[in-house]
């Protein structure tokens, strides 16, 4: 129950909205409130720029989900943050990664429906899908399936609306080799889905504490197998894409290891090697921004390392 409660709170984090710009330890934020879309609900987008950002240089771009949780713990629902400005700022100062900016995309009150990979969901038996929706209607406090699954629409927003805006408004390297995506939990699912659906747009994905169950239980749950089947058919070229997975062992992360190991088998079958794929286990780590903050430097370095 505690695991489910934490996941529910995380899913509802978008309900706590603060219009003031976050307090940063490094760099600056350009905030775009109510960024409009013909595909999904409007939302806030934060663009983090390093301290030495200049339009005379070009920058790689890291897109990150759950944008309101990335920079300032004083404005988040659980008083935790990823510490993106500190971590990426330090990596840039020590020249461990190439020059980059970070785009933090805020979630909305239908986070679960926007982040749940749509093609795997639609591959599930109809009676099972119907049962998930019926359960959600009977138990609205879960925030699961509170709207029709619409991750394909969310990715269209990302790729055809947000990315062109970012590339026009900032001095970026817009090519696939310099465009990356990252998130945790459901954000991990939508990140790997984005890489598979748009391999010509994204060169790599970082998926922390990926929520392979999709719901709160693994018993009699066909969702992980649906994800595995989708990945088997859809993983992009292992020579031109980088993929990072990880998981902890406490709270909700305690569910993930056997499911991640099955995904790892698919990675091996698709001939990913240590040069383009990493899966890491963090013993004792739980399902929280605090835990992701402590290891964020690893996936960022893996994706953007020189």
What descriptors fit this protein?
306 residues, alpha/beta, Rossmann fold, eight-stranded mixed beta sheet, 11 helices, 8 strands, disordered N terminus
What would you say this structure looks like, in words?
- The protein has 306 residues and is an alpha/beta fold.
- The protein has one domain: Rossmann fold, CATH 3.40.50.
- Helices cover 38% and strands 16% of the residues.
- The chain is built from eleven helices and eight strands.
- It has an eight-stranded mixed beta sheet with strand order 1-2-4-3-5-6-7-8, with helices on both faces.
- α8 (223-234) links the parallel β6 (204-208) and β7.
- The longest helix is centred in the middle third of the chain and has 19 residues, at 151-169.
- The protein is globular.
Shape: globular
Please indicate the count of domains. 1
Reported for the largest beta sheet, the result is: 8 strands, mixed
The main sheet orders its strands as 1-2-4-3-5-6-7-8
Mean pLDDT: 93
The computed structural class is alpha/beta
CATH fold-level name: Rossmann fold
* Annotation field: number of helices: 11
């Amino acid at each position: 129950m505690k695991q489910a409660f934490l996941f529910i709170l995380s899913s509802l984090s978008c309900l706590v909205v603060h219009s003031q710009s976050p307090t940063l330890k490094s760099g600056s934020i350009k905030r775009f409130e109510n960024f409009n879309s013909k595909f999904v609900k409007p939302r806030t987008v934060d663009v983090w720029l390093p301290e030495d950002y200049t339009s005379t240089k070009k920058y790689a771009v890291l897109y990150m989900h759950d944008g309101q949780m990335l920079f300032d713990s004083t404005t988040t629902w659980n008083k935790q943050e990823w510490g993106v400005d500190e971590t990426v700022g330090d990596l840039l100062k020590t020249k461990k990664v190439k020059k980059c900016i970070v785009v933090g995309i805020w979630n909305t009150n239908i986070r679960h429906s926007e982040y749940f990979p749509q093609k795997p969901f639609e591959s599930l038996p109809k009676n099972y899908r119907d049962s998930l929706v019926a359960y959600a209607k009977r138990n609205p406090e879960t925030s699961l399936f509170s709207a029709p699954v619409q991750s394909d629409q969310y990715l269209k927003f990302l790729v055809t609306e947000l990315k062109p805006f970012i590339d026009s408004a900032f001095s970026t390297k817009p090519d696939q080799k310099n465009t990356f995506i990252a998130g945790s939990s459901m954000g991990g699912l939508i990140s790997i889905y984005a890489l598979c659906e748009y391999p010509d747009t994204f060169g790599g994905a970082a998926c922390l504490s990926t929520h392979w169950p999709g719901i709160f239980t693994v018993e009699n749950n066909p969702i992980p197998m649906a994800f595995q089947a989708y990945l088997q058919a859809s993983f992009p070229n292992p020579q031109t894409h980088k993929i990072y997975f990880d998981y902890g062992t406490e709270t909700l992360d305690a569910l993930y290891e056997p499911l991640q190991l099955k995904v790892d088998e698919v990675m091996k079958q698709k001939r990913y090697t240590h040069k383009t794929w990493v899966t890491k286990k963090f013993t004792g780590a739980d399902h929280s921004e605090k835990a992701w903050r402590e290891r964020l430097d690893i996936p960022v370095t893996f994706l953007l390392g020189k």
